[in-house]
Amino acid sequence: MASHKEGTGYTTAVAVIGLGSMGFGMAKSMKRAGLEVVGYDITQSAVERFLAEGGRVAATLTDAVEGADIVVSVVVNAQQTEAVLFGPDGIARAMKPGSVFISSATMDPAIARSLAERFEALGLHYLDAPISGGAARAAKGELTIMASGSPEAFAAARPALDVMAARVYELGDAAGIGAAFKMINQLLAGVHIAAACEAISFAAKQGLDLQKVYEVITASAGNSWMFENRVPHVLAGDYTPLSAIEIFVKDLGIVQDMARAERYPVPLVAAALQMYLAASGAGMGRDDDSSLARLYAQLSGAKLPSKG
Amino acid sequence: MASHKEGTGYTTAVAVIGLGSMGFGMAKSMKRAGLEVVGYDITQSAVERFLAEGGRVAATLTDAVEGADIVVSVVVNAQQTEAVLFGPDGIARAMKPGSVFISSATMDPAIARSLAERFEALGLHYLDAPISGGAARAAKGELTIMASGSPEAFAAARPALDVMAARVYELGDAAGIGAAFKMINQLLAGVHIAAACEAISFAAKQGLDLQKVYEVITASAGNSWMFENRVPHVLAGDYTPLSAIEIFVKDLGIVQDMARAERYPVPLVAAALQMYLAASGAGMGRDDDSSLARLYAQLSGAKLPSKG
């Protein structure tokens, strides 16, 4: 692998596992910043998109991580993360000594802890580093990363973190803490989207001027980041998935499972999750999460704007 | 009543019905701005507080509104508003022709419409004008007012609106629309407080650094106006009521009743309302609405900060 860096003659080598909308953007950011990037994905179309950007790809997982200083995993969940690390073609035994695995999937903190323990026992570093910010910010290298791990893991991951993120929160010295912060964020995000949709379709049911509702609420105590961000999709009648219903079926499901295990009641999460499940069951699972507004409208006869 | 105003020799005369924390501040703002203000409250301590500020008070409702150009009603709910207007000592038949009644209580829009109709039939003007902003902004004349009513009602109310509010939304030409906007705001506000408390106590249950959670969430997609505003009460362990649990028992109750009548499902409101009811039942009804965090902690053994 090529290797040079100002003053040292060395370029950090990075493997990106998962070239979906987030992983593709993160790989692009790192390539643009001069890191030596190799990508891997099981989906041919994702591979081709990265090749078309001038990216390098590997044919197998173990090929991808050969010689890598940093492996960034941008897969969907804990199961896929475990498969990447410890599955039949798993990378845990192929990574070079002292290298770091950056795990960005949203997962139960207990699973993050357990994966990290197994991985670190091999003499490697694990950074629990869930991401937030969406595909556009991934491509610009402006993600928010909620990270925890050993000082060695942070040090080894630094060249990738610096170019992928506008903001890296260092939340603790062990895996699981980053995951726990991310789940608190997802709890709120998922409930707020559902609340925004419950409210805007209720306003529609009453025949209120929805643009005016948006204007008043975003300037009032009822505002949320999600109301401000998602309600414009409803006003435009555009449910092109920027983030899909299924993401919150997954994430609120994790929160509910964690809470049940800890004997902690989450009535708001439970109510919101039922609405995401209903939207998915009604065929909107792959549509934008603001589709909950359409679900409320279907259930009540409220009239929402259609795509203009 | 005294009467002069630059250029015209006339000072607008205002009666303020209800001198609680909001009404007191609104009366003060109008007095400071040079309006001729008379206050009324059934509670002696509220009367004395206004007298101590140099305010004038009346002994009866009908005395208070005698000669008033504008009556600002700052009572708690629809029942009290109806009693002020049409009760045994009601003001509807004592107000002078062409004067305006500004109703600030949060209520079901259908009730606002019906009160306005009865009142307007007497040749008087009714402005449906729920307020938002809290006692501190009331005292500074910086409320947000969500108003609807006839052009005549707006014109007659203008001198009072201008000095009470930093922002007056003109939402439509009939009573009920202002009320409906306010209920949409309360739906979101009530759910967001409950979500903030569900989240912060869940973070506590997991042993996370709560100051760090506040820092990360307020900079992330999980943020809401209410999370940002209320969680500091929890972090300080200070549940002095700035807004009480009972306010949302009332307001989410109104939303739930409206929604039931319109055959509109509100699962998030329903879940949140149960938590406010539980907090009230557990003895926290008059405490700050962030007391929901204490309820979650009691139910789960989570440890929250205590007052330092």
Automatic annotation (TrEMBL), chains A, B:
A Gene Ontology biological process noted in the UniProt record is: organic acid catabolic process
The catalytic site is made up of 182
The record places domain 3-hydroxyisobutyrate dehydrogenase-like NAD-binding at: 176-296
Occurrences of domain 6-phosphogluconate dehydrogenase NADP-binding (ranges)? 14-172
Q: Does the keyword NADP apply?
A: yes
Q: Name the chemical reaction catalysed here.
A: L-threonate + NAD(+) = 2-dehydro-L-erythronate + NADH + H(+)
Q: Which domain of life is it from?
A: Bacteria
Q: Name one GO molecular function term.
A: NADP binding
Name the keywords, alphabetized. Carbohydrate metabolism, NAD, NADP, Oxidoreductase, Plasmid
Q: What is its EC number?
A: 1.1.1.411
Catalytic EC class: oxidoreductase
User: InterPro entries, per this entry?
Assistant: 3-OH-isobutyrate_DH-rel_CS (IPR002204), 6-PGluconate_DH-like_C_sf (IPR008927), 6PGD_dom2 (IPR013328), 6PGDH_NADP-bd (IPR006115), HIBADH-like_NADP-bd (IPR029154), HIBADH-related (IPR015815), LtnD (IPR050006), NAD(P)-bd_dom_sf (IPR036291)
Q: Does the keyword NAD apply?
A: yes
User: Transmembrane stretches, by residue range?
Assistant: none
> Per the database entry, which stretches of residues form a coiled coil?
none
- Return the similarity comment: Belongs to the HIBADH-related family. L-threonate dehydrogenase subfamily.
Could you tell me what this protein does? Answer: Catalyzes oxidation of L-threonate to 2-oxo-tetronate. Can use either NAD(+) or NADP(+) as cosubstrate, with a preference for NAD(+).
Name used for this protein in its record: L-threonate dehydrogenase
Q: Which organism was this protein described from? A: Sinorhizobium sojae CCBAU 05684
